[in-house]
Design a protein that fits this description.
The chain is of the alpha/beta class. Helix content is 35%, strand content 11%. Bound molecules: NADP nicotinamide-adenine-dinucleotide phosphate.
């Protein structure tokens, strides 16, 4: 992958949201999108870490349009509030990067009584994306990018114990959530085909971040690459004209389409996961994608609970910002990946 040598304004006037934007790859993805001029909404669960990251992204890119919203993606109420707060200030969303993710050594339940890794890594992106589909569709062309993992290859969706109640294994539960990211992405792409919104998943590689790597994979921690490199395929999918209109694909860390595990292509499994997820997130048949009667509508009571975490200070966007060219190194140009997605792989 060839890096850019300067910044571009490719995303100027476009609105992007990145979850888990305060650390690891999410922060690098945020830097990449902000350096291309996007109006960026970084989502963090912690106000302190979130504001520190937002201010840093703003300062290093010189982009004044870097905002912060606070949400715990393991909590459905928090996700609904996030969407409400976003929509109170933006009527367009062109890019959603579902990046936030976690791995836990033991079974912990969320405020909704769900297993935390499954809730954060799969149900969170499922609910957030579905709730944002109306604004994404209004903003089309728009893109949804979900950060999965190569771990999907070792996973199986266990519908008898999706939440590790009978037995909990850290690696199995994490891998399953990353396979769910892909199954969800493929099913979403089928359901929203023709809407102008695309959905793709990405495997960022084995990257050094705050994500805890359990034994025995921890033995290979010395092989972990840089977060900035793990962010590149997501930035590419979120921004490059090369993948305009490409949907329902899984991309590797070089930005090339790759096969996911066989079961991920099973549409009956995908429909089943969608139905279970819709039930667990209380997204009724009429309020999730493929609804014939319209898009999700928030309950009235929820619409009134708004606290907007706007940035406290705003720098000016200047062409002479000393950090623009440095940050540009992760913004993947259309040149860098030209030819990666062959026309025959594009949906007709
Ligand atoms: N690192 C790798 O080798 C690797 C490989 C394949 C895939 N991935 C995937 O890459 C994505 C990014 O992870 P990373 O490696 O960059 O790890 P990271 O540095 O730990 O970043 C994860 C981000 O997700 C946030 N997050 C976790 N739980 C959350 C919750 N309940 N609500 C809101 N935000 C939450 C974290 O917030 P806090 O800072 O508050 O914890 C953090 O900002 C994840 O989806 C992960 O599964 C990573």
């Amino acid at each position: 992958m060839v890096n850019r040598t300067d910044t571009s304004d490719e995303l100027r006037g476009r609105v992007a949201m990145v979850t888990g934007g305060n650390s690891g790859m999410g922060k690098e993805i945020s830097l990449g999108l902000a350096s291309m001029g996007a109006t960026l909404v970084m989502v963090s669960r912690d106000p302190g870490r979130g504001e520190a990251a937002r201010a840093d992204v703003q300062q290093r890119t010189g982009n004044p349009h870097v905002e912060l919203l606070i949400a715990d993606l393991s909590s459905q109420q928090s996700i609904r509030r996030l969407v409400h707060e976003f929509e109170a200030h933006h009527d367009r969303l062109h890019v959603l990067v579902n990046n936030a993710g976690a791995s836990l050594p033991s079974r912990v339940e969320t405020v909704d009584g769900l297993e935390t890794v499954f809730a954060t890594n799969h149900l969170g992106p499922f609910l957030l994306t579905n709730l944002l589909l109306p604004v994404l569709t209004r903003s089309a062309p728009a893109r949804v990018v979900t950060v999965s993992s190569g771990a999907q290859a070792m996973a199986k969706l266990d519908f008898d114990d999706l939440q590790g109640v009978r037995s909990f294994n850290e690696i199995r539960v994490y891998n399953q959530s990353k396979l769910a990211n892909i199954v969800f992405t493929y099913e979403l792409a089928r359901r929203i085909a023709g809407s102008g919104v695309t959905a793709n998943a990405v495997e960022p590689g084995f990257v050094k971040t705050n994500l805890k790597v359990p034994f025995p994979y921890s033995i290979f921690s010395f092989m972990r690459g840089k977060a900035v490199d793990g962010a590149k395929p997501s930035v590419f999918l979120a921004s490059s004209p090369e993948v305009e209109g490409v949907s329902g694909k899984f991309f590797n860390n070089k930005g090339a389409p790759m096969q996911s595990t066989k079961s991920s292509y099973d549409e009956s499994i995908a429909r089943r996961l969608w139905a279970v997820s819709a039930e667990l997130t209380h997204l009724g048949a009429t309020t999730s994608a493929q609804s014939s009667s319209g898009w999700p509508v928030l309950p009235k009571a929820m619409r009134s609970r708004t606290t907007w975490a706007r940035p406290s200070s705003r720098a000016r966007w200047t062409a002479s910002s000393p950090n623009r060219s440095r940050m540009a190194s992760i913004a993947v140009s259309r040149r860098s990946l030209r030819g990666r997605v062959s026309p025959e792989k594009r949906p007709s």
